[in-house]
Amino acid sequence: MKYLSSANNPELKRLRLLFKKPKERKKDGFFVIEGIREIEKSIIGGYEVESIFIKEGYESIIKKFLIKPNELLSFNIKKSVFDQISMRSGSEKAIAIAKKKIHTLEQLDLSDNGIVLVIDAPEKPGNIGAIFRTAVAARLNSIIISNPKTDFYNPNSIRSSLGSIFLIPAAIASSFEVIRYLKKNAYEILTAAVKPDAIRYDEYNYKKPCALIMGSESEGLSPSWLKASDKHLIIPMHDSIDSLNLSVSAAILMYEAQSRNNKLEKKTIL
Fold this sequence. Notes:
This protein is an alpha/beta fold.
């Protein structure tokens, strides 16, 4: 394990660029994962980890990862330098660089006719991460992002998902491509939209297969989705509130749809 004591080291300069710049992640084809739990989930999700940076004094944690030390580059980072680079002020003890995946619609497996979630033009990485975390918990088939406005591998998305972003199949495409794909696979398109003919989300039977379509908080769903919709759904709210957080709304619909299809495991959380 190579010891690095200067933030000007080429490996650490690259790490900082991948942390901060979406264009660099796009050009390089790699991204950054911070946190032991998140790195472990990326490995479980089949991501190729290129290198791991361990904070000085915590060298033994490399044994936690399902990778043989000689199969990747590993670096031991001086404590003060690690704290300087870390986005979490050194609260985590490991940072990894991993190879990005290609997220195409054709790679999704819809053979089980499950529930698919589509997020249209999401803007906030924190919301995206929270939605992925809930989708994994609710055992959704997959997530599709149409017309994304933020980088899929934004460190804040990974952080807020607690690494769950690596555990569920995901695709990225334009709304036109996604609509065509869903119709080709005979998926019912259910849009979360306040329309005169909308029905309460808990009055729908969620016959499989179906796709739950969520729009951004600032703009809602695009006209193309509203036109393609088979049914509009609404979540009742008190008159003093005009909208819910995107991740909260998505969670309500995901759990309702999955519970109607007996897809939720019965577990007690203490």
